[in-house]
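Annex B. Sample input.
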Amino acid sequence: MDASDLRYLRLLSQSFPTIADASAEVINLSAVLSLPKGTELFASDIHGEHEAFAHLLRNGSGSVRLKIDDAFGDLLTEPEKRELATLVYYPREKMALLLDGKDEAARGAWVAVMAERLVALSKQASGKYTRSKVRKALPPEFAYAIEELMTENNHAVHREAYHRDIIDAVIRTGRGPAFIEALCHLVQRLSIDHLHIVGDVYDRGPAPDAIMDTLAGYHCLDIQWGNHDIVWMGASLGQRGCIAHVVRNCARYGNLSILEDAYGINILPLASFAMDAYRDDPCVAFGLKGDPDLTDAQRELNVKIQKAMAIIQFKVEGQLIDEYPGFGLDDRKLLHRIDHERGTVEVDGVEYALTDRVFPTVDPADPYRLTPEEEAVMQRLEQAFVGCEKLQRHMRLFLEAGSLYKITNGNLLFHASVPMNEDGTLREADVLGQRYKGRELYDVLEHHVRAAFFSDDEDERRQGRDLLWWLWLAPGSPLFAKSKMATFELYLIAEKEARKEVKNPFYTLQDDPEAMGRIFEDFGMDPATSRIICGHVPVKAKDGEDPVKCGGQVLTIDGGFSRAYQPTTGIAGYTLISNSYGFVLAAHEPLESAEAAVRDERDIHSSRRVVERVEHRTLVADTDTGAQLKQQVADLEQLIAAYRQGLIPERG
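Annex B, continued. Sample output.
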């Protein structure tokens, strides 16, 4: 044993000062290693759809109902199972309906029945966890009572009487509803051991802030940043290109309330400017996406703000492109190519008619200069985004729980793609004058993202902020799935040939084992046993497109959480479940509403597809956590040997 090993063991002995202490920990860890692995849930592209997402967390992507079936079999009728499931998902709301009008005796009888059922369900859900882990999950107020109810006792008669006494005490003290709610939340928590969000919490849907609040309180979480998350991160730092996109996109989907109500960002100066500058403009190219529930006045305001911010975005992006020629985005600059007299624009040597010819704030002689009014609007928006405490808190969650990619249990998680060439080799990207590819590209970009928030050097922070803008839209970015049309083309050119989007070769190579193998090798993974889990590009399930690629080595789980994309995908999102038996892909139908789920006991209907079933149940020992625990066991066994050899004295 060398000196460095001995130094480490002496440090370890401070936590385990005797052979008995170290041996006890070895026994405990060995017990943990023998348990089945916990359930992991993967979700992607939630896009502000909080109600549907929250429901899937509450029902464990369908696992709660499966546990009810396992726990009760034929002991409960189908209506009783539905009622119990709905109670677990929405305990407070369901109790309000079920107990309304009941007298005290009837309420107590109901609590007694449901408490017994929920305890049985909790025991079913906790079967794969150590008692210590379950104890940590127990709600503090009722921890002792619930633990006693969940603990087996060989004396059945005594056990039943003991349980009745505990539940009677809960009812007698008026804490029955709170006790039921605590048990429901325990079942929810035990149904999912770890949650992976594979990008795009933000944009399109109405409540990304509520999703972030939900994630902030989640017990075990990681997030891979999506392009729509990155652009909000940039906006929170005052990056103008990101702010222009965020505000324009909120207006485009009729979701300005995200800015005003959720984050308290004052858009009155912008609204006043837009209504004045485009007062007599029908804004013909700037209709809203989807069918937002707005009054005529609200719709007009959203349309005019959308156009005002689109023009500002064209200008701000043009300035950034000139400042960073290495970004290679010159083809996105089109304002200077407009022929205002003819109402046309030249793109790649072809002249196209504009769908909207009214540009009151664009100076043909200096098209990328903001007018004084536009400059004032942007200054106010910068201050509002940077000064919003709630937004800053949510972005800090991205930094604390998030990254551009994650490797876990043989899975490579990232939101969009690894840039590739058509021949299946990794594509290089220029990042501030240096060229990177694959994992190295991801790592250097994540360094710059964090520098944008935390660097002491102002120039490094500024470059990091501007890279956030580049990261969400540039062809060399790993968040870039396809050769996006410029926002200009999206709005102002009707011809399809000018609006064509060509996918990154990563997407055409997803069924190529050799190309995917290069990615695994570059990320230090075994191509024979690894898989990629990603999202970003909606899978058109209604057209027969398969989210499972390359024999199950690539799983694309963007199925259309966003209502705006559900007509394209034909479903309302995918979730992927990894448990001790393998991988299951769930395709979900739309949730009518949380209110209907409570009132009519309507769950989200999901079709489940087994992607992989393992021959032998996966244990904690087979996971990354297991590898860490095995190392701890090995270290402790070394410490025990050192004690026995007299190299380190026991201190007990």
